Amino acid sequence: MASSRAPEFAFTLGLVSTGGPDLFVVCKNCGSEVSPYITECPYCGTRLRKRAPKLDRNGRISERTSRRPVAPSLSRLRRGEIPGIRHEAHPYATGLLVLLGVVGTLIWRTSLISWNNLIIFGNPHQQWWKPFTAPFVYDNTGYAVLTLLVIAIYGWLMERRHGPVMVLALALIGGAGGVGLAGAVDPTSFYMGGNGAALALLCAWVVPDLTLLLRKQDFDGDLLGTAVLAGVIALMPIAEPSAAWVADGVGIVSGLALGQLLRRIHH
Fold this sequence. Notes:
Blueprint: H1 2-17, E1 25-26, E2 33-34, H2 92-110, E3 120-121, H3 130-133, H4 141-162, H5 164-185, E4 190-191, H6 195-214, H7 223-234, H8 236-239, H9 245-266
Antiparallel strand pairs: 1-2, 3-4
Helix pairs in contact: 2-4, 2-5, 4-5, 4-6, 5-6, 5-9, 6-7, 6-9
């Protein structure tokens, strides 16, 4: 048995020492180490190559049909960063959105500021600040917990992929735009809460996975869990009248539109 396994052991050593396939390549967008045999980065969704490389009978990437693998590279080390380990950006924008939601709800519960100065009640065209304060005020604990949870999850994911500016833009369009338009459409009701902002962040995040699903390709995200959370937030106006249906629509449309735009830019 020793003689029969000797050629196999020698071949393995040759593969490692004589230029076998690279163990990983580095994604240019997020800097993660990924397999050289995939077409898209599983962490940020960036397309690494148009098609998967062809392999020869020994498991090596065929040089005739593929480009040279991208050489691993790391950016300049930041303060406190360990060499060889990518720095993980902190979700400051997402944390700010969640913190404002908690603070706004506490202000509402303690009556530190008159509720009429914070929420949408009637057309807000003469009170321009209300669309920017109403998305951070909740009069229902369940509404607050579920909405802020979705904002925290998908805001964090979006911030890792596209940075804080896009997170704030989606929250502004879906949240402030949603309650502002709701007040203009139905000035007889009052509106508050960030259901529009939550749906905008969620829908923008899910666009790449939805695109792969429609193309019948593999994807890494949890579409079932995302669909459940989206359904809960979208149906929130049934249980909580202060959550506007119009804000739902604004959040979904803006999230899908901006998500598709970002997907095209990064691909």
